[in-house]
Amino acid sequence: MSASSTSAPNPAPTLADVRRRNESVLLPPPATQLHPAFGSSLRHRRHSSHSSHSSHSSHSSHSSYAARHPDRVPQKAVSPNNAFLSVVSLLGLILVYTLVGVWLFINGFLLSRHELQGWNQCSTPALPHWSLPIPPQSSDDASLLNWAHTALHPVTGNGECILPPTHAKAVVLIIDALRYDFIAPPPPPLTNATRGAPVRSEWQPNPYYHNVLSLPAQLTETHAISASADSPGPASFLAHFTADPPTTTLQRLKGLTTGTLPTFVEAGANFGSAGTRVGQINEDNWIAQFKRSILSPDLGSDLGEPDLNSSAGLVFAGDDTWNTVLPHLFDSNTTWTYDSFNVEDLDTVDRGVESKLLPFLQTHHPDRVAGVHDSWRLLVGHTLGVDHVGHRFGASHPKMKLKLQEMQDLLRNITDAVDQETLVVVMGDHGMDERGDHGGDAELEVGAGIWVYSKRSFGYPGRNKQLQMHPAEYISTPQVEAVLPSRIPFSALPSPPYSSAGHRSIPQIDLVPTISILLGLPVPYNSLGSIIPDLFAHPDTLLRALRITSTQMRTYLNAYATKSPDFAAFQPEFDALWLNAVRADAQLARLVHASGDATTQAEVEEAMRSAAQAYHAFNRISLARAREVWAQFDMVGIVLGLIVLLGALAVAWVVRDGAINGLIGVLPAAATTEQDPASTVLTQVVRRTTTTQELHAVVWRSISRPALVGAAIGAVLHGSVLLPLPAVLVSIVKPLTLVDSILVGASIASQLWLLASHLARTLSRSSECQGGSCGPATSRLLDSAGWILLLMHAALFASNSLLVFEDRFVLLALASLLLVRGVLLVGASPTTHLRLRSGLLTLLALVLVRLAAVPRVCREEQAANCESTFFASTSTTGAALNSPYTIALAYALAYALPSVVATFLKQSKSFVGIAPRMFTWVWRPTLMIGAGHWALDYAVPLDAIQRSGWANRLEWIKHWMVKLDFVVLALALVFWIFAPLCLEIRTQTVRAQQEANEAEKQKVTILGYANSLGSSFLLLVGVAVSLVWVVTQPSGQVALAVGWVAASVCVELTDAERDVVILFRQRIAAEQAAAHRQDQPESSVAATVKAPHLTSGALMSLLHLCYLLFFSTGHQSTLASIQWRVAFVSSPTLTYPSSPLLVMLNSFGALTVLPCLLTVLAVLWNTTPLPRGSGRRMPLPQHLLSALTTLAIFNTFLLLTSAALSALLFRRHLMLFKVWTPRVLLAVVASVGGQLAGLVSATAAWHLANKVNAIFGSEFA
């Protein structure tokens, strides 16, 4: 007996039937024309000699017989549409509840920062010298705060809001993904402190990016800012430039221009485009302030608001993301933008920036035009070559060295051409990891670099040599260093050989107030940054700049407090810090205004430093608290979302139990019988549902009216918030919109009514077993194992230390579950052959699962406990991201995989009909095209290809191969919809002994009949696997191929487990019949046995296998693992909507599409159609519903636990946005995407059921 050939979802066959499952089904020769679903090849095999009558006479004869004997003619088979429509409707109900819960929760949990639309409108002119106002007589808190408001504030008093500009022009160059160590100076020579002997270090510079872009380090060494300089001169400042996550370009540009902190959800706006207003800056920013100052130089004039669309000498060239962020801000005739997402193009943007900006700087440039290139005030360039090399090849690649050398030449041209009036700022918007990726908060991703250069300098200290001190140390305090240290370690440049004190580091948002003050501009209204003290060496200038920045930040925090309670918990701390700063400033004012010689210069210097430290502490701690808060949580939305999700989980459990055991409801006393539909009794009685139609009717009656009533109540409550309602009710309803109120009311009311009617009875039933129809103990144990594993998986979310190793847990859990399944199956199998086969299948599954887990991408938190194997080595070898050996292996597997999967069909003689054609002409070519794409992707950058001149042509071929792949798959899907089942009729002549004569007879064999549903659905799964394959990189393709074979083995194991349950129930039924002395044939006893549903253990195996494929295809629940480069597999440029869809398919295809398809495949596998006249209906819709709802329960439970723990327990945890928030989003995608895929999969099964119904007359319950 072969376990692969059992028709588990049908009434159980006898043992003899199970043993004959691999034998073909014999039917008499067809007397009528074959249905098109058999295929044209079957028609050609008919022999005209089978009938002695013409088709006309045959039809007439049949019609007259039907007229004479209507009771003897089989009725037309009942359509399966109502049964499957009920399945789809119930799955859709669960999806709707899930969507409502997710909508409410996400709106409350994914934080949103209030954008204040105010502008810092400074009307006070800049003064070269400014003195503190006379301090108050009293030192009490009220007097000090009143003095700050009436004397220090620039609006209500005589305070400053701008300083005289140090530079009239600026050149700002953003080198995308410029990591700090790309421009850092080489390490100083280390010597032993006692003997002067050199100290050895194991660290070696990377030849591809260390000391290549060396100009910033060279000029910094020559013209470093000196705390004891006596006169102005060239100055250079270089530092580590810490980016706030998410480290995507659009969010970083917001921070670099407005000084604000991004929110987690803003990462999705990185795919925004100009004209959509997605990602557009609506807040005050330093570039807009610069343009205002140019167009309206007289701050106190009454000329009105300047027209920001006018030309002001603002020039831009580079990344077109700036068009999204700041549309129409630069002069239209001097703005040149280039596609930012074409990672295949390493040079176009960089060449454009160089060719467009250098004519403005170089007076003898051949493209310079008088009147066009000589009236600029701001040049902004944004190159992309470094970032694209990283995405394309990784950081350690020869092309990175070439690109950094190009940037070296560009910087040298800029620094040679600028004059003393020009400020030069060169920076990275973010860093990159060794694979060239970014987006998260890993050390290398946030570790950008900044270089500021001026031929005039930024001023000089001008104080006594005895008081000389580095500006960063001058204003530093232990309190501030504990919150935001000015020096940090950097693993790419370790100590030794670098100093143990760490690397000078500043937050990126500090650029905003710094460049604003240097250019004589007001600090943008929403800025949370402080100045870079290294650029304000004179203590008086430093204090004035700090006072301006702190006053602006205090104004912003007070305005924000009126809009949101986000900072309410920190308000006392803010007030205390501000009061300390004002008190220190007042003490300085007393010393400055004191008469007589009692006050020494040292006291003034000390008071000046104390005031600077106090203002700096206010700035830094305010920033730290803002980072902690990030933005606001809406607890009403969070709690209501969790309640609806909990209700969705309970409803799914009730529907699942109804599919297995039925629900109690008011139904017709007798269901329509197959023998005589007219015998239906219309009397309504309370009984258990027996079909999906009845289940749908009971559920719909339970939710329809309560949903309407709940929606009405929600709408009424929303409109009654102004009435004297209880405070608790108002606090719940007020934050909700009208739509939210209606959705909450309808969802919760309908859920509660359904659960009140059926949940208690559902929970009281421990299983589907009724009396002797129970399965063996091993089957019940396996079912329990699935739920236990689900609880263990959910328990991971309670600890960030465990959650970061989720990939290893999935591997361990899956291997353990497969081992348990194998042991139980071997023990329960009735024959030696089955035990041997089950053991071999289990062993094969364990080996395949372990092989599939070999490709791996490590999270930053896994550190030394993980070694990434997904990409090729990127240490110092210069290897590409994908290994040629892996590419070759993926190509070989693409050829072999269809043949391997075909062996599973051949076991049940189902590799017939259209199956060989689909495998040969669709599946294998598309898989090989998908693997060939990455082979060309590897070959195009090779020096030999580049020199041959074939690079562009191969690049074109590479993209069109993928387009061809998609076209073939689309045509294959259309073909599958209209194609026949995987059936084939074979006719052979046999000799039969009739009385004394030997006669020849025709025997017709239908091959593939026993697995006609499963084999046909397998073709659809093959199309889906091919679709995921083409957007998966080579290591992932290897894992996907191995995982697909492992999935086929798991389906075979599931079928074998159903065989065991069937045989067990047959034996119990036969024993019960014998005990009651009922002389029934074996086949009659078998017909009364209830077919088993898939166990939770079998379904959990498939789900965890798909989770394993998610991790093995190069993903983790982190933003950094998103493989952005797959957005360009079909096009060298960003294309909507295909590029985002390709990234989504690559990231989530294995976790959303495959689980549902494999679940339905397991249900349909070896499901033998019941022909017309059998007197029974196939319970296939019920089995599909129970399996898909079980899968929905798994995903929803993981979503609910991760969401509840994140929002209720860990919402203020330090690792919330690094660990839990990405996992919650992954759970949302898995749950919602999985349920959508479940609807599609159920619809596909419905389509196949219609084909079976049309051919064999099978009916479905």
TrEMBL record:
Chief subcellular location: endoplasmic reticulum
Segments crossing the lipid bilayer: 83-106, 635-655, 707-729, 781-803, 809-827, 834-853, 885-905, 966-985, 1006-1031, 1098-1120, 1141-1165, 1185-1210, 1222-1249
Family that this chain belongs to: Belongs to the PIGG/PIGN/PIGO family. PIGO subfamily.
GO biological process: GPI anchor biosynthetic process
GO molecular function, one term: mannose-ethanolamine phosphotransferase activity
Protein name, entry field: Uncharacterized protein
Membrane topology: Multi-pass membrane protein
Localization annotation: Endoplasmic reticulum membrane
Pathway(s) this gene product operates in, as recorded in its UniProt entry: Glycolipid biosynthesis; glycosylphosphatidylinositol-anchor biosynthesis
InterPro entries: Alkaline_phosphatase_core_sf, Phosphodiest/P_Trfase, PIG-O_N, PIGO/GPI13
The entry's keywords: Endoplasmic reticulum, Glycoprotein, GPI-anchor biosynthesis, Membrane, Transferase, Transmembrane, Transmembrane helix
One family name in Pfam for this protein: Phosphodiest
